[in-house]
Amino acid sequence: MAEVILENICKTYGNNFRAIDQLNLSVEDGEFLILVGPSGCGKSTALRMIAGLEDITSGSLRIGGVDVVDMPPKDRDIAMVFQSYALYPHMTVSENIAFSMRLAGKPKAERKKRVDEIAKTLQLTSLLDSKPANLSGGQRQRVAMGRAMVREPAAFLMDEPLSNLDAKLRVQMRAEITSLQKQLGVTTIYVTHDQIEAMTMGDRVAVLKGGVLQQVDTPKRLYESPVNAFVAGFIGSPSMNLFEATLMGDELMSGSFAIRLQDAAFVRRPGLRSYAGRKIVFGIRPEDLYDSSLESGRKYQTIPAKVTSIEELGSEHIVHLNIDAVRVDSGDPDAVDDFGLASNAVARFEPVSAVHSGSEIRLAVDDAKFHFFDPETHLAI
């Protein structure tokens, strides 16, 4: 096991395109770190540089205290698990797992013992004589994991290993990989574009955009305290609602409604007062918007809204709304338009809500849960 330290890492291609710009990241010994971001943000490039599959233009990379910038991949003491599994189709499960040990000239008895141990851990014992073509996607992924584990590397690198699996199997494999990483205690860097994977698997999550590290923190802190509007919009599904408003005294004025901010909002964010009389961006997550008809026991402020469509998911309703406010783009190039032509907001309602498409409602807002951002820099206030 070892810590992985990246200092001022840059990757520039021949056309002067900078895929990674001054990346500084420290992955602790035994930590499970997730690299996440939209397509083209540089997360896979960063992983491939750590593996030695991409040259580093400038900067320092240390694994276990050793500078590996000029070291070939085979000498870096890392094991990589790919999206495609990369199994040898003519070999059995046992032969695939033992392949690196055979290349290293390990005795047959030692190879068998180690393969049996790993197969037991990964629940592959009954499949050791099978070929990859006869395995399910989840079983193939376990074999790929086993082939990485057999080397007992200083670090695991995983490049979107679950993206080829169906939704149900992905949920199962997320839990299995997380449990296995805790059991082994091996430093792991895991790349994904799926922020649900990021939030449920990692000890910490590093969010990239355009080759630049935006924020690295625990999933909880990323969710509760995003450093900018991009992170706020990227982390969470459905995305945080971001709107433009004007701060007049202690009121947010937007279109035809006003929301009075409590003193606590200014205590938590002393810089908020400096935006008096100016434009500001405020954000609120879908779960902090409510059907006011169900909130009689709580004194939330309300604003008018029109329901444009509803997704009934059983345990909750995803309600698409239109409110009199200007929607702000979070800057995520992969963002899917959750809202449609007639909508600019989305809320999570309890399934007992009786609202229906086309209805005019009063939308209850929990202003204690507001996030505030500078309208030009999009940095958190």
From TrEMBL:
InterPro entries (UniProt xref): AAA+_ATPase, ABC_transporter-like_ATP-bd, ABC_transporter-like_CS, ABC_transpr_MalK-like, ABC_transpr_MalK/UgpC-like, Mo/tungstate-bd_C_term_dom, NA-bd_OB-fold, OB_MalK-like
Keyword Transport annotated: yes
Record domain ABC transporter: where: 4-235
E.C. code: 3.6.3.19
Record-linked PROSITE patterns: ABC_TRANSPORTER_1, ABC_TRANSPORTER_2
Coiled-coil region: none
EC class name: hydrolase
Keywords, ordered alphabetically: ATP-binding, Hydrolase, Nucleotide-binding, Transport
Membrane topology: Peripheral membrane protein
Cross-referenced CDD domains: ABC_MalK_N (cd03301)
GO BP term (any one): carbohydrate transport
MF (Gene Ontology): ABC-type transporter activity; ATP binding; ATP hydrolysis activity
Subcellular location: Cell inner membrane
Superkingdom of the organism of origin: Bacteria
Family, as annotated: Belongs to the ABC transporter superfamily.
Name of protein: Trehalose/maltose import ATP-binding protein MalK
Source organism (scientific name): Mesorhizobium prunaredense
Gene from which the chain derives: malK
